[in-house]
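The protein record filed here:
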Amino acid sequence: MPRPSSKRRMLFLALGVVGVVIFMGFLAVFLPVYFTVIKKPPSSSIASGSASPLPSSTTSSSPSSSTGTASPTSTNAPAPTTGGDGSVITLSDGSNFTYRNTFGGYWVDDPTNPYNNSARAQSFTPALTEPWNYSLNQIRGVNLGGWLVLEPYIVPALFEKYQDVTPSAALPGGQAVDEWTLSVAMRNDTSGSGGIEQIEEHYRTFITEQDFAEIAGAGLSWLRLPVPYWAIETWEGEPFLPKTAWNYVLLAFKWARKYGLRVFLELHTVPGSQNGFDDSGRLGTVNFLNGYMGIANAQRTMDYIRYIVEFISQKEYEDVVPMFGIVNEPLLEVIGRDQLTRFYLQAHDMIRNITGIGKGPYIAIHDGFQGTVSWKDFLPGSDRIMLDTHPSVFGPGALVSNLDFPLSFWASVGCIAYSNNQSQYDFGVTISGKFSSAINSCGKWVLGVGQNSTSVDCDVWDDWRNWTQPMKDGIKAFVMSQMDSMVLPGYFFWTWKVGNSSVTGKVEAPFWSYKLGLDNGWIPSDPRDTLGTCASLGYPQDLPWNGTYQSWQTGGSGAGTIASTALASFSQYPPPSLSNVNGADPTQLPMYTATSVVPTLSTPVFASATVTEGDGWADAADTSLAVVQVAGCVYPDAWGPPAGSTAVVCSGPTATIPTSIAVTRAAYRVT
């Protein structure tokens, strides 16, 4: 995915396309798995999509699975409704659409038990009631970028409205360039069509239930759902729309369950920004684990991770949300590996304190744009930490040194450069959380508002309505090569949908929309068709993965017993040093105190439910309070304090700033 702002200082790393060496061991190991587990059987009518295992619409009095605690049911209680390809789905507003799924998938709607997990996205994908085997079951996923975290190139119409407004300190240049400045501009807009409520209207309309149905119908089985921390709360001075996005997170869980989709939930933004990119909420500097407010912002972030984990670890959600990314794309070159590793260790212990060892979601961490190789042997003995990498041909961590190649070149890049097999051995479970069909940086605002691509022929590539068949075929070959290379555990395309420009009335960043490519022929209509692409092009994988993880990497024997050498190296927290604090001791930097009531994450209400609902908190033993500013103290700007305003100033007899939040691993009850 593109990276606004850092895009101005893009670093291009050499690809180093090496000669391909074919291992006979690869054929012996991979082909049996390929043909028996992943590749669609040619003789099966259900697997190939010509038939559904259910009639077009059925009702059942005994759904195959449920969660929650049953209550006495009325004989008049509505029966679950289910259907496959061609069934008609009626929405809450009374409208309807026809469900199209030629892959044998079926939806389940159970008003009395809204936690019914019997739906199946496709006949070849495990139902939500069945375990997911990361060694055998391929993740075929898509991101819902731009829905709950706004990005200019994904939803340009929202930003185009505010490109020439009255400048102010909060809106420099009179341009909305990120969600912070967009929120300021909307709040300043007192016209009948203005106001911050425009963002909720976007939530309501940009992604709907029908999108979830279409994702399952496209042969995809997972969603990666970026959420902002302001879905939970905002603090004074932060202009974001607070607590509203969470309502749509709950809808996403509901719709995913209905259509048999699994969710990779990820915290896309953190206080102070983890990378300074526009998709972190505010374009600018990194103030998470960096700078004078780095520790304080990390405290808030840890709280938000905790609240989300408490919610998704409830039994009602554990099958729907098996994966949680705790910080999206932290900029490692600024933060530092030592500092980030210490934070990750604290987060791991806090999370497993809540869930127990071998339980709860996988913990996904991003590679920090440093590639996967450098993460070898990360926290050995930890419980189900997975590595999330975001391969791209430009921007931070770019895979090529320039973009001036013929279209036919890109399929080889997908085959050679996008494989995660080495990391499966070195780290453990490694997924590609973002990739796209982009072969250049063309597209309106892909590099950020006001930033133009230097790629050649952008006029041609932006005009997707007039792409020739060879152009579509070339882009499709690139997409298929990536999907084939990332076969296991799998991938998530960035992103499902790109909105139209209000100026041109059409999508202006076509490389980034799965739906647009699916509708227009440069995304494969059956993602299983990608398997074998690289071998057919003469680029078989030069390092086969044997399909085996170490037991502790998937929550088995040894999980939760982190190697003593790692503990000795990384247990001290806060880190012994922090960048951009002029040598100050991190334990003496501004920090918050845990004395406030924990914000409540709302739970859904179901009118006809006959099962008890969770209260939003999985671990009753977790009674820790929330961090908050010390009363009577004035803190530096959490988003980048100016020189000379980097200390906490307190007044009054009760205003005592904590002098240290140093913790050890013993602070967490890891069992």
